[in-house]
Amino acid sequence: MASFRMGLKAHSVPMSLFRNNRQKLAAALREHSNITANTSYVLLEGGREVSFNDTDVNYLFRQESYFQYLFGVKEPDCYGVLHVASGKATLFVPRLAEEYATWMGRLLTLDEFKAMYETEEVFYVDELSSFFEKAAPSLILTLSGTNSDSGLTSKPAHFPGIDKFKTNKDLLHPIIAECRVIKSAEEIEVLRYVARVSSNAHINVMRFMRPGKSEYEGESVFLHHCYAIGGCRHTSYTCICGSGVNSAILHYGHAAAPNDRGTVDGDMCLFDMGANYCGFAADITCSFPVNGKFTEDQKFIYNAVLAARDAVLNEAREGVCWVDMHKLANRVMLEKLKEGGMLKGNVDDMLAAGLAGTFQPHGLGHLLGLDVHDVGGYLEGQPKRPTEPWLKCLRFARILKAGMYLTVEPGCYFIDWLMDRALAEPELNKFLNVEVFERFRNFGGVRIEDDVLITKDGCENFAIVPRTVQDIENVMTTRIDD
Ligand code: GLY
Ligand code: MN
Ligand code: MN
Hints:
- By secondary structure, this protein is α+β, with helices and mostly antiparallel strands.
- It is 35% helix and 15% strand.
- Strand 4 and strand 5 form a beta hairpin.
- One manganese (II) ion (MN) binds next to loops.
- One manganese (II) ion binds next to loops.
């Protein structure tokens, strides 16, 4: 049985995972009344090698996610075809000139590709046109659809000569995206693996960080663990390693803020990092005091977020509405902030006024899979994006189903402009105990982010990291030195 595996110790991903995904998609397409299964084919174009500006150096390749979902192919510049009636797959690989072998090693034969990826046939990309001439399809389904997180639209597959055939670029997207939402048993094992590797890496980072270390040093410990121990060559997104006031910047770590601050005693750290293995993502956030001991103020905010997270993990299961989970998390957090003296008044009124968005200006979480913000958010036939200001940041609004995999990531941040807006607006400032609120101005923020599989009667958390104040302090008493 062929598989993907990094080295000797990392998880082995069987090629049957991708074959089963193809069968699932073919079966879903056969249900569709506009598709004549026997003469219809899916055509996907894999990710392309991208050079760094005008140089002959390439960005480290990562496969396009839909292509990965169906074919699990490492190489760039490939195409894949799926026959809807039979589920038979044909892979098309680039025909490389002999001298490539000097730079890349021996070129694989078509039979070797066939054995490696367990597709029924393999041809060269330049044979696509003749393949379809022989197959005489009534319809080629290419893929184009708008990603509801990025707003970007994928480009349908193209090859010279495709114009001779009837194509449809829109039918496939909602169907294949929906297939990706419910994870198979084999996918769940990979997701569990990459979450475990990422969790252990986070624990190492907590044990390594201390006042005086820079944020990027924590990032490097994470990257090293995920790669050296877990075989994860990629992360699923740029590591977010905010300390002190930076921990309130939701996607810190970008090019202009490259995790470059030196930490000081008394800082909170918010480290949001997830490895990627064979395309599958983890997305985990740990928030902890850099010196390993929470102050009373840090405990107050941390425990408010933890209570919100615990409430959601207790309630999340098949049949529950995700929007209700977001509301529950917001409610619990506001209650805790009120209990601690930062807020006053009625929590229902706070929710109605949108006060939660001052502290958590993002949704409770998102679907997770081959993409960190995975597909399936706002597909046709699914609940639409809510319009209320405090709910419209949700990345999906669906009823949960067993087999969905998603993040639960409540947070509480003290972001200057949102604090100023809350202080200025009578509808919001009436709930604030200003002195307490102002005490947190440079606090930064706390996020607790878990990766959760929904089951019929509950959920399973794959992020295995210390979560209570006590557990974090205990873990951090064992230090890792550089
Ligand atoms: N790491 C990005 C997010 O949590 O959604
Ligand atoms: Mn996330
Ligand atoms: Mn995250």
